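Hi Y.,

Following your request, here is the sequence exactly as I used it, all 432 residues.
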Amino acid sequence: MIVTLLFAIFIVLMVIGVPVGVALGLAGTVAIALANQDVPWFGLLAVPQNFYAGLAKYPLLAIPMFVLVGSIFDRSGVAKRLVNFAISIVGRGPGMLPLVSIMVAMFLGGISGSGPACAAAVGAVMIAAMSRAGYPKPYSASVVAAGAATDILIPPSVAFIIYSVLVPEASVPALFAAGMVPGILAGLALIVPAVWLARRHGMGKLEAHLPRPPFWASLREASWGLAAPVLILGGMRMGWFTPTEAAVVAVFYGLFVGMCIHRTIGVRDLFPILREAAELSAVIMLVVTLAGIFAWSLSTLSVIDPITHAIVNSGLGEYGVLALLIVLLMTVGMFLDGISIFLIFVPLLLPIANAYGWDPVWFGVVLTLKVALGQFTPPLAVNLMVSCRIAQVPMESTVRYVVWLLAGMFVVLLAVLAFPQLALWLPHRLGY
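Below is the corresponding structure, written out as tokens. Let me know if you'd prefer a different format.
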């Protein structure tokens, strides 16, 4: 009864519009109190303890720093310079601007690690440019949102940091390395339907008449942005700093580029940048801490073991269970953001992964791929919300384009499921 009430309270609160973090915390608190009916207040003593325990984890320090990096590089004009450099390489023509959008989004994934932040940075530059070239705004918003979804796969990744906190067996460096190949494949898989749709529907007819930036000049302008992921990932690989320290280094590097090199950030801009990053980081951290209460209530009520036993002994087999998880998480991903999905479902799914002997690093990449799909799957797609707001179009207008992009990334998910070495080869080669 208490378990049923736990999920019922959570679902009802979500339906009436309560923020997901608050819904998780309230549902978990009520369940903990009811589990100790003789002395309800005794169980409630665990609530503040678990609230703090959910936050007091060293890897989580990297999250506000990477969020701040995204804000700094958004304001510094790095995205615009990367776009010009990419156009100078691929040239002009139908389907080339969508290709550039996805390429730049993938590259920015090596800087910020946040899909919505990338969608904002790329969308601010590319949606207007694509509109001038003759691409429909719903199509442009779809391409930008899908390209930004690769950011949680290509390191550094906020999602991988959250997963590592929940699954200590999977280290952050191993997850970063494991996400590289699937992230690149996901970007390439998005380019195919994006270019095909543009050429099939005759989009971008004006693009060929727009000027092409000179290669060497655009390379010089983009060089500081191109060096950022080399500094972040190379420094971690060389052992100069940990992922958390790499985020701090990236902040100071971004400030140096924005204030001293491009001079697009002034002293007066620092406070708005810090405020924006602090607000977004606070939301993420609150969800993390309140979800810790929910997860502890699941453990206290002994919910996880019966669910694991029922699924493992259901007769579906390993691949049947994987198919079930895909359907479940993709459905949930249409309504919840990626961080919430990890915090709610990883404690439930990890025993199932252990029962089948799945590698925790590979399992983390698979879950993150599913979350990436959810980031641009209507009706509640965080990346798509950002890009549609920039394009000033309703989300419903993007569905006819989004389905093709979803199909492209879904093929990569199936490939990683069928061939785990796509995710595990690089971390094994690097010794993680």
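The two ends are 44 Å apart (CA to CA).

Thanks again,
Q.
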